Amino acid sequence: MCRAVFLLALTVLVCPAAEALDNGLALKPTMGWLHWERFMCNTDCYKDPNNCISERLYMQMADVMVKEGWKEAGYEYVCIDDCWPSHQRDAKGRLQADPKRFPGGIKKLADYVHSKGLKLGIYADIVGKTCAGYPGSLGYYETDAQTFADWDVDLLKFDGCYMDWKLLGEGYMNMSRALNKTGRSILYSCEWPLYEWPQKQPDYKAIRETCNHWRNFDDVYDSWSSIKSILDWTASHQDIIAPSAGPGGWNDPDMLVIGNFGLSHDQQEDICPRSKKLLQNTDIIAISQDPLGKQGQCTIKVDSFEVWERPLSKKRLAIAVLNTQEIGGPRGFFIRAAPGWKICEPQCNVTQILPQYKELGVQTPHTKLVVSVNPSGTTLLTVTPTSDYAGLIL
Ligand code: GLA
User: Fold this and answer.
1) What is the pTM of this model?
2) Which of 25, 54, 195, 286 has an alpha carbon 20 to 30 Å from 362's alpha carbon atom?
3) 63 tagged catalytic
4) pLDDT band of 5, cuts 50, 70, 90
5) What is the full DSSP assignment across 88-129?
6) Residue 159 alpha carbon to ligand 1 centre in Å
């Protein structure tokens, strides 16, 4: 994926360690909506018609994504997770959607989602059954890939529950090839390393060549402790996982859960305005979608603060300061203690993105600027060096 090769030194800066899956997709991290964390395997449309896994849920989500500014902000994929299929394959061995919950079938749902200018994702599993016990794809990789292509599906989340870990690599690669063989561009989201880590260190070169993104760690829950565990895992494994991230292939920390309850069917029209504003914040999205595509890393843990830094295009840097002390009030952090602050030599321009947008003006390496960070909160800045000299030392 690293096409513009000017200088060796430059390619080292902009290219991840291995080639990405060459399907032209996920050049930036995927943005969209996935049903799992909020709606799970709720299939009881009789008792709970507004929250069950049915075509209605995805159609309404597509409507909301257009109407409420999500599509405009860059959210593109509407993704089905587990529990969508019928428990039986059809006479030709193809997966079929549960006929009661998806009376129109997946093709019609894909047409609807596409008519809104969005894309549709679907879910399957590498062995004989999915994590929730629905039919899996083992023995049917080519059939299922072709079925998804015939339905005009745009993304496949391929789960790895119940697979003998020694066969994970082979299975994920075979499905990748099967998807490629259909000729349709289908973004391929894997859970290969998540299931391999308990046994051995995964081969991230092979994973990047096979998948467009890959889950490494546990499912996210709607709680701060779950988010913290994902952050901790990521920080403690970043030397292994971060180099493999870049245009075409990404480490997937699972879903954002901000405003999650607000995104339930009942409340989707009135998601709490503050959560909506955060999820649609164009400055944050610009950091996520920055074309340089380098993964952010935890660069220092000090005095119950964590600093996370992400190099951005045009020699800029995003700095997030997290206050991990969950007692007391807001605490001040001397921003010059962030290791990446060296790009402020001789000067830089600083913008605070969170908690409120604020221009913090021109700063130097020796600035006394202190940023305030709430307990378990994050202050997010972007830093732009103001001279070529500073750019050279990035
Ligand atoms: C696993 C995955 C989740 C979700 C469920 C569905 O736990 O990690 O993201 O897809 O299966 O059953």
Assistant:
1) 0.93
2) 286
3) no
4) very low
5) S--TTS---B-TTT-TTHHHHHHHHHHHTT-EEEEEEESSSB
6) 7
| Nearest CA residue ID for atom 6, ligand 1 | 82
Q: Is 81 in the pocket of ligand 1 (CB under 6 A)?
A: yes
Residue 35, pLDDT above cutoff 90 = yes
Residue range 263-288: mean pLDDT, rounded: 80
191 CB near ligand 1 (under 6 Å) = yes
Largest interatomic CA distance in the chain = 72
Q: If you measure from the C-alpha of residue 53 to the centroid of ligand 1, how many angstroms do you get, rounded to a whole number?
A: 14
- The catalytically annotated residue of 203, 219, 232, 283 is 219
10-14, 114-118, 311-315 — which is least confidently predicted? 10-14
Gap from CA of 149 to ligand 1 centroid (Å):
22
Task: For tokens 């790009």, name the residue.
Answer: 343
319 pLDDT more than 80: yes
Ligand 1 centroid, distance to 131 Cα (angstroms)? 6
DSSP single-letter state for residue 180: H
Interatomic CA distance for residues 48 and 42, integer angstroms: 8
Assess whether 159 carries a catalytic annotation: yes
CA dihedral 315, 321, 322, 324 (to 10 degrees): 130
**Pocket-testing residue among 53, 79, 81, ligand 1, by greatest number of atoms within 8 A of Cβ:** 81
Task: Answer whether residue 269 shows pLDDT above 80.
Answer: no
Residue 179 CA, chain-centre distance (Å), reads: 21
The H or E element spanning position 147 is helix 141-150
> 115: which residues sit within 8 A by CB, 6+ positions away?
none
pLDDT at 387: 72
